[in-house]
Amino acid sequence: MIKLSIIIPAYNAGHYLDDLINCLRPQLTEEVEVIVVDDGSRTPVEDIAGVEVIRQENKGASAARNTGIDNAIGKYIAFIDADDLVSERYVKTILKKIETEQFDYCYLSWNTFGGGWNYEVKLKSLEDKFPPFNLCVWNRVYKKSMIGKIRFNEHKAIAEDAQFIRDVKEEGKKKAFIGESMYFYRTGHGGNLSQRFNNGELDFERVVVNYRHITKDMTDLIDKVKELNETKEVIILTEQNDLPELEQYAMVIAPRKLRANELIGERTNLVEIIPKPIRTQVVMYIANAHKIGGVETFIYNFCKEMCKFYDIIVVYTEHMDAMQIARLAEFVQVMRNPNKIIKCDTLISNRITDDVPSNIKFKKKIQMCHTCQMKENYQIKKGWDEIVFVSQVAADSFRDQAPEYKVIHNLTSTEKPRKTLLLISAQRMTYEKGEQRIIDLAKAFQRKGIPFLWIVFTKNRLKEHVPGVIEADPTLCAKDFFKRADYVVGLSDIEAYGYTLVEAMQSGVPVLTTPISVLDEIGFKDGVNGYIVPFDVKEADVEKYYNKIPKFKALKNSNEDIIKQWQQLLGDSKPTGTYKPFSDFVKVVITESYGDLELGRNMMPGEIVNMRKERALLLISLHKAEVV
Q: Can you name the CATH fold of 205-273?
């Protein structure tokens, strides 16, 4: 007969759970069962000899304990948190107490360990009670019949212990106690609930109700506290409580310093308000976002397509180009990293060199890799759950760093393009982007007497001016200019995906490209979709490029398949629709210099800027801008 069922909820407990099981295993007898409920850990708990392991989707500690209760067959039930430890005499002592006293519930003496705060509760008699803040189920052993149909509140992430204890109603039942320390509560590892709440990391709310004197005529407070208790932790601070019924729904204690998300009742300096975390389904993170770039294009296309299925917030820490902010804001919320916790189901980090801010909390991290391994010897930062490369070529170049990965091609624009001129390039003038080849190919056209107009959209100017080459400021959508071009030109050393080439071919525009490795993967065929320009441009057949411009059917846009891949990766969901896009912009002229935090730069008098109406009105009221 099983006398004692020990229930252990576990979520990403790692070696702590191993330590606990190693402590319990020598104590187990045929009268004891141990049930570990793996609450959707990233690395599932493996089977453990002599232990029943139940795996379920992540639902929280309350749901894990409820699963344990539902499966327990012991006459008595004890709860242990996976990151704590127990005495070597834990099982033996509890079984002896069951045999000798047949109690309804038993209090366990306990103390802390682990290098954090030091605390000890040493019980000496049946009249001893735990301190007010010690309403925890791990320091109690209950007769299962006493629990009956009562279960933990799965809508609460903390203080569910206190509600469970109040619901079980210990008063009037046969009590026992164990004076020897049976339970050891781990502190100092940053993972206990109190520390996580103080850091603003938990998905729960604490409400403090403060009245110096709660009188008998304040009965409406009972219904209010009862309602709050269903989803929040409620703590009542009072010097005198004349409504003892409140203790069924909240912890009632004398005034003391606390942290909370909300204060109800009389104002007090004892309560420090912690801002509620920002919550969303997906965070797209990038430290810096420039006016143009493959990563920036990916983020825009991703947000435009995937906002139909998920709530998305784009977060940057240092700088984002104003034009990028404006176009993203048509679909998703964009913010410079705020001084508060941001919680999401999935974080997508868009540069392998970016450190994710510690205030962004996530259940799963997807690391995007938009680059190939190059001479800088890029290192992919650790800590991701999934890594996604934009091409097989990119994945192959990082094979040593990412043995397991997914390849999902970039979403591309489905907007109808507008025509532009003969030759177009759109790229940064960094070392791998073929700056010298642009100059050499332009000169080759000149030497053959071929008339050309080549628009190069770039932030960094060419190191040498060549007649016929026009250097234009970067544009967010170079595709708008492709249709009138004879060719879209890319002469890089290497590309992980080649957004410009793909968008050109999907628009039905031929391309001139160097023989980069990704050409086969993106569907390019020499002589059909354009021509391959040798890395050594002196060998280029420029007359063929001029006289035999190929005509071909545009490549099919594969967004539908790519969206399905992302949905499989991110899971089933739908956006809540809480974010309302803004598109109301006002053009203003700066009249007084100031530092703009959103744009991340100093604004100078005379600059004309298209900005959000709210910001424009603020600057006008401060006499720093006027409407154009």
A: Double Stranded RNA Binding Domain (3.30.160)
